[in-house]
Specification:
single chain, binds pyridoxal-5'-phosphate, 5-stranded mixed beta sheet, alpha/beta
């Protein structure tokens, strides 16, 4: 039967303490015990339903975690204060000194920097590979490899990972497959395709209002318990805990994610088709010209489309900067990093979100200077937006004006 993540979210019914339609917020950092014995049992992990201290868990965080686990089809989940606060403990939990990670080379710059510059301090090494080539991935696996790491749709190049194929490799070599699904919530369900751990930066589409950072790790009860373990759990000990007030607000926003994703995808596809027809080098997984269009189609859940992320290449960083400034001036969106907002956001990844990646490596992976990454907003009238964007491109001679084209 088809997996329906939005139904799973809708079916979660939480009552507030006084019958409220939203769950009550637990506004406490610590919790009382009626007996000292229960406190002891809770420390030992043997007192279900008892709360101890809010770095460990809170009712509000558990509500949000449960909803995100339902969305991803995993047993449970642990929310964190940011996406990086989800990613780094997972890697630290699964890898110790001497271990090795095989990672996609096109991943979020912060994750790349962590694996490349920080994890080696703990003697955890990473091989960065072209994740779209399963033979290359397999060749990079060594006897020390513990983790395969990728993004379902990569930041910023929008490469698509063959999650089923990677899951088979993970099984063959007894590795854990970690998939960051930040760019494709609802559309792709990595755990259903064989991923062991699914991560999101909630900061993006899931929260959708660019008012907070947040993250989540979705996985088995056993793995989430390990992360939360008071003695050796990386989430518990590294301490990247989400605040309960935030968990409550992210949960409310999650309730509208399915509607927002449909609009982001509708607008993304419309602009991608127009830009491509205009002769701009356009990358969008919904375009048949995308090298992994069929793969994405084979993995996706019905209804939510190919997402709101697209890139165009306008030839040079100067042109990219001029275009972004002009689009912002004309109120078409914001020149800002991040994604998943109601308004379009654009940035040049080479000099921003992926600047952690050295220039020669950027070139090798196809991250060109003139690349602009768009997170397409929820614009009600995307035809009007397109017309205005096209006018900006004509003003800057990135595109010839239609009249010139007719005259020449
Ligand atoms: C794909 C992806 N994963 C993880 C992160 C990190 O999330 P956060 O900024 O919430 O720590 C980002 C941030 O841009 C991202 O784009």
């Amino acid at each position: 039967m088809a997996f329906k993540p939005a139904n799973n979210i809708q079916d979660l019914q939480y009552f507030g303490e006084f019958g409220g339609v939203n769950p009550s917020i637990s506004d406490s950092s610590t919790y009382t015990f009626l007996s000292a014995k229960t406190m002891f049992d809770t420390f030992e992990g043997n007192a279900d339903g008892c709360y101890l201290y809010s770095r460990h868990s809170t009712p509000s965080n558990l509500y949000l975690g449960e909803a995100l686990a339902a969305m991803e089809g995993t047993e449970t989940a642990n929310v964190s204060a940011s996406g990086m606060g989800a990613i780094t403990p997972v890697i630290m939990q699964l890898c110790g000194a001497g271990d090795h990670v095989v990672s996609s080379r096109t991943i979020y710059g912060g994750t790349y920097a962590f694996l490349k510059n920080f994890a080696p301090r703990f003697n955890v090494e990473t091989s960065f590979v072209d994740i779209t080539k399963l033979d290359v991935v397999e060749a990079a696996i060594t006897t020390n490899t513990k983790v395969l790491y990728c993004e379902s749709v990569s930041n910023p190049l929008l490469e698509v990972a063959d999650i089923k194929g990677l899951a088979q490799l993970a099984k063959k070599y007894n590795l854990k497959l970690i998939v960051d699904n930040t760019f494709s919530p609802l559309s792709i369900s990595p755990a259903k395709l064989g991923a062991d751990v699914v991560i999101h930066s909630l900061t993006k589409f899931i929260n959708g209002s660019s008012d907070t950072v947040g993250g989540v790790v979705c996985g088995t009860q056993e793995f989430i318990n390990d992360l939360r373990n008071v003695n050796d759990g990386a989430s518990m000990l590294l301490g990247s805990t989400m605040d309960s007030l935030r968990a409550a607000s992210v949960l409310k926003n999650l309730r509208t994610l399915h509607i927002r994703m449909q609009q982001h995808s509708k607008n993304g596809l419309y602009l991608a088709q127009k830009f491509q027809n205009d002769g701009l080098k356009t990358v969008y997984p919904g375009l048949p010209s995308h090298p992994s269009h069929e793969l994405f189609t084979s993995m996706m859940n019905e209804t939510y489309g190919f997402g709101g992320m697209l890139t165009i290449d306008v030839g040079s960083l100067d042109k990219a900067n001029a275009l972004m400034e002009l689009m912002q001036e004309r109120n078409l969106g914001y020149l800002a990093v991040s994604l998943g907002f109601y308004k379009t956001l654009f940035s040049a990844p080479g000099s921003s979100t992926s600047s952690e990646i050295p220039e020669d490596e950027q070139k090798e992976m196809g991250l060109s200077d003139g690349l602009i990454r768009f997170s397409i907003g929820l614009d009600a009238d995307i035809e009007r937006t397109y017309t205005m964007m096209r006018e900006c491109m004509e003003t800057l001679n990135i595109l010839n004006s239609k009249e010139d084209a007719v005259l020449s």
